[in-house]
């Protein structure tokens, strides 16, 4: 992880020299990341969102990405990335060097494509920009690699559980939230995300979720997270059918 901020010291410089120094003040961030969205900005350039290991989601301009004949940046590519801007509040410009394209292996799988689209849409919607989620980044890369070699639904469910944990909705399934017992855990509290045994769940059968955990249940917690942030679940997740 590298971050470089230029510092400007004013001594007896003229106003013109001071303004020149202010103009040259900039910020640079370097990391490794995966492209989670990209859209044309004009005939040559594109605006991309890259989920980086050290800085989380970052937005920036990819110069020449639209017209590139070779090595065109695409969603799902992993590479080294540096982000530069004169001011921290600016969109900034990416310098991108591709390392691999793990998403290419699942492009011939309908379920794989839907899963990746959902993963990237959730990351882009629910994670704040420039906030590091190192563990989730590693789990995202690992999940993409596993999709073609393991049951896709299981891989994706585990990933959503990890995402919920990062969002503050950690699911606890090891013991009953009411009495602490470790058996007959067949329900889940929609309020706390903790398991509930049969006896404790009996008075609330019309409220609790029935275990085992599945994507319909995690979708409800994700919807709560989206609502808390004043946004909606991305279409790629609501349309997910695997």
Key terms for this structure?
five-stranded mixed beta barrel, OB fold (Dihydrolipoamide Acetyltransferase, E2P), single chain, 242 residues
Structural features, described:
Strand 7 (185-188) and strand 8 form a beta hairpin. The protein contains 7 helices and 9 strands, in the order E-H-E-E-E-E-E-H-H-H-E-E-H-E-H-H. It has helices at residues 15-24, 110-126, 134-146, 152-166, 198-201, 215-228, 235-238; strands at 2-5, 27-40, 46-52, 56-62, 78-85, 93-100, 185-188, 195-197, 209-210. The protein is of the alpha+beta class and 242 residues long. It is elongated, with a radius of gyration of 22 Å. It starts with a strand and ends with a helix. The protein has a domain at 1-100: Beta Barrel (OB fold (Dihydrolipoamide Acetyltransferase, E2P)). The protein has a 5-stranded mixed beta barrel. Strands 8-7-9 form a 3-stranded antiparallel sheet. Residues 1-25 have low confidence and may be disordered.
What is the element layout, followed by pairings?
Elements: E1 2-5, H1 15-24, E2 27-40, E3 46-52, E4 56-62, E5 78-85, E6 93-100, H2 110-126, H3 134-146, H4 152-166, E7 185-188, E8 195-197, H5 198-201, E9 209-210, H6 215-228, H7 235-238
Parallel strand pairs: 4-6
Antiparallel strand pairs: 1-2, 2-3, 2-5, 3-4, 5-6, 7-8, 7-9
